[in-house]
Amino acid sequence: MRVLGFPVRMLPCALALGLAGCAHDPDTIITAALDNMGRQTEAVVYADAAERVEWEAATVPAGYVADGGPYLLDTGDRLRVFVYGQPNLSRAYTVDHDGMITVPLINEVAVRGRTTREVEDTIRHRLGAEFVRDPQVTVDILQNRPFFIYGEVKAGGQYPYVSGMTVETAIAIAGGYSERASTRSYRITRRNAGFAEQFEVPGEYPVRPGDVVYVNERFF
User: How far is CA 139 from CA 4, 34, 95, 145, in A?
Assistant: First the structure.
């Protein structure tokens, strides 16, 4: 898929929005949703899901599987940090717009783009360096960040993520299709490693926390 002679997936966000041309364009809505979560991203747009999988297979870092790898934390995730024997440090934390949580004694901890195990190691190291002898730290996800759905649905907006959901599940949560909706044309915008990837998907495609789902209009 090409625009002005360039592959669509290589267009930066600013150019994609410039081509959109109007405030109600889907790309504008999706960008606003990402900004609402405190994200600053560059868009990577795919012609379809198959192209995305092929591209990611060659670019994602070792140890990460694009559609089945470890869950990477981001804004809106709610975490439970437990430090054995330290009730003042053991509490729930919500990842803020800067991708941080603030833990007593050690202050801000960067968690965006990291796994819970990596956050455990960071907190353990920083507490053990000055404040707690041999700290035993566990980090769990209490609640995933929400997803967004826009376009031709009856009640678009932000909703809590449901484990195992698909595009069709997301549409049902948003009240179902509008009268002008296409029942075969959907887009997902997903952040990965600082980029907002956009690709066409079928209705049974899995939705992840933080995804922006867009239901296209039907053309007669």
Answer: 47, 26, 13, 16
